Amino acid sequence: MARHVHLLCLTVVLAAAAAPAHAIFHFDFRTDMVSPFDGAYSRHDTWRRAALASNARVARHAASHVKALGKKGGNISEAGAVGGTEGHWITVAVGTPPQPSKLVLDTSSPLIWAQCKLFDAAKTKQVEPVLDPSKSSTFQVVPCGDELCRAGGQHTNCTNNKCMYSSMYANLISDGVLASDTFTFGMEHDSVAAPLGFGCGTLAGDGLAGASGVMSLSWSNLSVITQLNVPRFSYCFSRFGEGKKSPLLFGRKANLQKYKTTGPIQSVPLIKNPWNEIYYYVPMVGISYGTKKLDVPVESLVLNKDGSGGTVIDSGSTLSYFVKPAFEELKKAVMETVKLPVAKYTVKEYQLCFELPHGTAMEKVEVPPLRLHFEGGAEMVVPRENYFMEPGPGLMCLAVGVTPMMFFPNMISNVMQQNMHVLFDVRNTKLFFAPTQCDKL
Ligand SMILES: *[C@@H]1O[C@H](CO)[C@@H](O)[C@H](O)[C@H]1NC(C)=O
Ligand SMILES: *[C@@H]1O[C@H](CO)[C@@H](O)[C@H](O)[C@H]1NC(C)=O
Ligand SMILES: *[C@@H]1O[C@H](CO)[C@@H](O)[C@H](O)[C@H]1NC(C)=O
């Protein structure tokens, strides 16, 4: 399947004079991501909005997962108005001559899409930058019946002889036509250009907090990874809200051994779910809080034959999500361990909050790390700042929620991966990770 898409891309390369044909074979570059958390809002507001958007995102994901699994029960919760404060974005250049587009990095999106000036913009809130395809000599609409259109699966279809796409992100929907154009990634002295199929369309719902689209790094047919046959990539998220850089690396630049880590490099297998080929699953088999192993049945953590359950590693959500049996055990352990009063007033997006002593910052509170155990013995140590947030004055809230439905996997969010260099070795289906000071990488 991937081979077909790849072949098609080669054809497009030959057609697109601006893209050096060797580029797709060496998709090596490094860039810094911009965090949505270094923006316009106060620290408390940022966390609150992030949680709201995260919950909306996971509800949407759950709804399409249920559809993919052929089960009943997809119910999208209405999350209210929030600008999508989700995910980190990078600036890429699209077309010939290049036009800038800010794309949110997402390991759990089916396809790449960007806002386009193709349609009547009346119904939508287009946020600059918006692509103008009429100004690009390499822009092409993907015809109906094209391999790329078929590769879209449930996310594309043919309507009026056009290949239409539709994709959800957090609490917005983007739809339009599937197109192809040259994308240029990286900095001027270190850039790579390649042709990519992408959704060129408009948004319905709230904006993307300054970004203009999504760059899919998932396992799906239409991601950057599959279309360009990228063997591996890595990212390293700095602590949010501190204005520090978060690197994103591709191809031969992605190599944990080349960089200083602050702990051992560990690895776990990456698992593909035949029922939903978007997500990267990892075999989590247990959870500990400090030294206490939580009493969670392993069956509620592993991927089942019918495609339900399992654990996904995700770059886009802010809160992490555990299935109910795991969440309840974690909540119990946290309440026993954290010697603070449980807050009577709770920000509704969070399930458990503590009252901080007057005048004490969250950073001053000593709590043990959360530990995620994987098949084969690898262990991910999650320090306090990666699973607690401060969404209101004097409130310390657990940045872990309950999965919206039983079939849905546990989800390891980007906050949980802060200051960790995470490498997706897609070709060898392995995930490597090592604690790292991301701004020093
Ligand atoms: C979906 O969820 C909403 C709010 O949680 C609820 O009011 C509604 O009845 C649910 N719909 C279905 C079909 O379950
Ligand atoms: C991937 O692409 C192939 C061929 O184009 C198609 O048959 C398959 O259904 C696609 N997979 C998904 C999950 O959409
Ligand atoms: C086809 O796609 C368009 C745009 O995504 C959507 O509005 C329409 O409902 C889809 N139709 C079918 C039959 O899936």
From TrEMBL:
Coiled-coil positions are: none
- Give the UniProt entry's GO cellular component terms: extracellular region
| PANTHER family (UniProt xref) | OS07G0603500 PROTEIN-RELATED, PEPTIDASE A1 DOMAIN-CONTAINING PROTEIN
The family line of this record is: Belongs to the peptidase A1 family.
Which Gene3D superfamilies did the record assign?
Acid Proteases
Q: What is this protein called in UniProt?
A: Peptidase A1 domain-containing protein
Q: What is the lineage of its organism?
A: Eukaryota, Viridiplantae, Streptophyta, Embryophyta, Tracheophyta
Q: What is any one GO biological process for this UniProt entry?
A: proteolysis
The cross-references to Pfam families, in alphabetical order and at most eight, read: TAXi_C, TAXi_N
